[in-house]
Amino acid sequence: MRALLLYVLILSTVETPLLAQSLRITGATGYLSEWQVSGDVTESTSGRIREFFGPLIMRHTGLCSQGGPEEKVAQIRFQIMRSSPLSQFKATMMLDGAECTFSGKLLDTYSGVMDCANASRVPLTLTIK
After folding, report:
1. Is residue 47 part of a domain?
2. Which string of DSSP letters, residue by residue, matches 58-113?
3. pLDDT per residue over 9-49, tens digit each?
4. N or C: more exposed end of the chain, with fewer CB within 10 A?
5. Does 96 fall in a domain?
């Protein structure tokens, strides 16, 4: 019985990797929110800092699109750091060879701006579930 209790105690103090989690991202970006954003990201690490990565499809929803809406593929990577009572996150998105960064407090939705190599303070709203 003591051996079993010791075994459980040791297991509870060792950080063990959890099963990778997938999250769905939806939202909009652009100065006029003219880009619809959607994609699925997968957790790549576990522990205190959780990291997610994956592709995002960006679809231009403006009225001036000829021949259908323009679509681009971006890559996103973000980290969620647990802090009480909210989670902090830092994100990097690669789009057309340009790196964009943003960070903040994460509830279910992030609403703020991202800074890119070729543009700054681009409005961004993302829902992560």
Report:
1. yes
2. EEE--TT-SSS--EEEEEEEEEEEE-SSSEEEEEEEEETTEEEEEEEEESSEEEEE
3. 333 334 444 556 899 999 999 999 999 999 999 998 766 78
4. N
5. yes
H helix and E strand count, the chain = 1, 8
Instruction: Please name the residue that has the structure tokens 């980290």.
Output: 79
pTM across the whole model: 0.76
Whether the Cβ atoms of residue 41 and residue 27 lie closer than 8 Å to each other: no
pLDDT of residue 44: 86
Q: List Cα–Cα distances, 8 to 12, 16, 47, 88, in angstroms.
A: 6, 13, 19, 31
Could you tell me if 102 and 94 are in contact, meaning their C-beta atoms sit under 8 angstroms apart? Answer: no
CATH number of the domain bearing residue 37: 2.40.128
The range of the structural domain enclosing residue 36 comes to: 20-128
Contact (CB, 8 A) for 54 and 75: yes
List CB contacts of 63: < 8 A, sequence separation 6 or more. none
For residue 52, list its beta bridge partners: 43, 78
